[in-house]
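Problem statement: downstream parser choked on a complex file, so we are re-checking the raw output for the magnesium ion run. The parser issue turned out to be on our end (a line-ending mismatch), but while we're here, posting the original submission so the record is complete.
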Amino acid sequence: MESLKAEGVTNVFGIPGGANLPMYDAVVDADFRHVQTRHEQGAGHAAEGYAKASGRVGVAFATSGPGATNLITAIADAMLDSVPTVFITGQVKTELIGTDGFQEADILGATLPFVKHSFQVTDARQIPEYVHEAFHVASTGRPGPVLLDVPSDLFRADIEYEARTEPVELPGYKPSTEGNIKQIRIAAKALANARRPVFYTGGGVVNANASEELRELVASDQFPVTSTLMGLGAFPASSDRWLGMLGMHGTFTANMAMDRADLIVAIGARFDDRITGKLDEFAPHAKIIHIDIDPAEISKNVGAHIPIVGDVKQVLPKLTREYRALQTDSGRMEAWWSQLRTWMQEHPLFYEPGAGGEVKPQLMVETLRKVTGGEAIVASDVGQHQMWAAQYYGFDKPRRWINSGGLGTMGFGLPAAIGAKVACPEELVTCISGDGSLIMNVQEFATCVDENVPVKVFLMNNGYMGMVRQWQQLFWDRRYSAVQMGSSPDWVKLAEAFGATGLRVEDAADLEDTMRAAIEADGPALVDIRVTQEENVYPMIAPGTPAREMVEAPGLVR
Amino acid sequence: MEAGTPDLVKLEDLRVPGQLSGRKHILSILVENKPGVLARVAGLFSRRGFNIDTLAVGPTDDPSISRITLTLDGAVHPIDQVTKQLHKLVNVLKIRDMEPEDTVAREMALFKVSAAVENRAEIIQFADIFRAKIVDVARRTMTIEVTGSADKIEAFERMIRPHGLVEMVRTGEIAIARGHE
Ligand SMILES: Cc1ncc(C[n+]2csc(CCOP(=O)(O)OP(=O)(O)O)c2C)c(N)n1
Ligand SMILES: [Mg+2]
């Protein structure tokens, strides 16, 4: 406990059990807030939401066996999205380890593929040291989840806590952060020569808190910017240099810009398959500058011509300085911008407006933007609603968009919103969810009510696991298999049963007022919004096809 | 100034270095001697689809550090990517991709061969040629210890196989950098 306090921990999420009873006894007197979730997966995602919203390390506790295994999805999620988190699990007593004791699970072994690092405590005296190392590893370099597994007898051992004076030193762990200045200079010179450059930015910019530095660099010239799903908000969507998100459901302009670019500047992004489409036809004309804190990401999927390993927060200002020192001619990008503008005009995001009070899902997101002034923290689940939220909310600031991008975990949204609200109590925290996703961790409404965490959930209720339905429609001849959600539950009654406010919208005319009512209501609220059932997300790069063949919304008139 | 002046970097001159070396690599990896380290290394290889050809683990002169020596095929795996992923393991301290000309690599193998009395002389002769040692003799078999490069061991295997190879055990290569003047 002392070690956690020394790390500046102010909030943790978790559930007790036999093996972590001693730790929970200490929670009674601890001077941090413990939020008791209703499922360990909820605790894990809440810790992630906390970390994503605040940039601080998120912490979750669970007991041995099933408590620990319930955390695994959240741990894997934190790994794929590089979320700084520390998970502390209880383990059976030392003497029972390896005997298939009651509630024994080899959580260290089970999570090996999903952790940045993990520690098995074998001696109580290791606890303070390991706690500090865990926070250090989780939060530095490329952030990620760290697991600390503590047998229950070792939690109990009374040890003296000595405050740490030296910084953590791990011989095998030294992230390089500065960026090679020679490489940065070459990058600046290449950039000065590019006629069709694109900045392709990712979640690494958000993680590094380098949004300002990115904006400075882009302000150096007429550079167009796109970002991944994870990077939204690092660059303002309201800027005239913004091309929209790229990737499978990115804008026509952003994807075409990558396809035609002569130079791509990848910053804290990892060329995931949802970005590249068919890999061997990705960006056929482009040279690549790749800036990332993780050397293993460089040339993993797409070869980098100018690799720069470093913390983007440190590298970007150097690149800005080097670039500004060069004599450059921004007229060289004129033809490029006229092409980009033509694409933007002729291929905007588009949907057919609803008729007769029909609530279009895209309209739902646009309306949420309107009533929140675009200033809310928006947590999301996984599916069509996630893509529409990403396309239509228009994030202008980092750490406002909280979603599960890498693992794509349904059930992430509500607990992540709880974590975000605990981290940022002054902010309006909303969750855009789907009827398939919300029910996966719906128990966390009880956490919202009992722990007084007033998040506002806007349920895009389309009666389907819509994203899967879309794939079945488009790629499996519309043979719908196990995607209907039926009429259960009655969401309004369910919200009320938990003690939250429950509202419903069936007519577009009521959308705005009902959203405002939910935001103004005391405490947590859920709005069940009945949207168009069989709407599809466009544009779409069909799997295995190159970006330039993306399919646009039917009915788009130029 | 015109874009494209010599002082700027011309995009068409930029190249991505090749990923596949096309040869065998020996990686000598120093790791912290802690429980679970081998599982982390092995797990990384299987998870990322890297095939290990041989693997040898042993202590070093420092009891807190172990050495893992492994060989893999650089024609199939981008070695750079392998070492970068390995480096991400916190318990991995140092990785050396051994330069073939600068490295002494050795492996040991034990061969149990069926050796009827009338064949024994010939087998002993083979062993002599390879500077191998007979380490066990039984009524129907002989066991021979061979030390050397992987090539030498494979050559010995080809020679001895026709005599009836009962069992073969190989350690996997270990390697050390040559001393410098
Ligand atoms: C835990 C989990 N199970 C299954 C999936 C596969 N999956 C991806 S999207 C989706 C449908 C989501 O449905 P819903 O929450 O209603 O969102 P919609 O697409 O309808 O907006 C499913 C089942 C997943 N991503 N996560
Ligand atoms: Mg749905």
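For whoever reads this later: Strands of chain B lie at 24-32, 54-59, 65-73, 92-97, 103-114, 133-137, 141-148, 165-170, 174-177.
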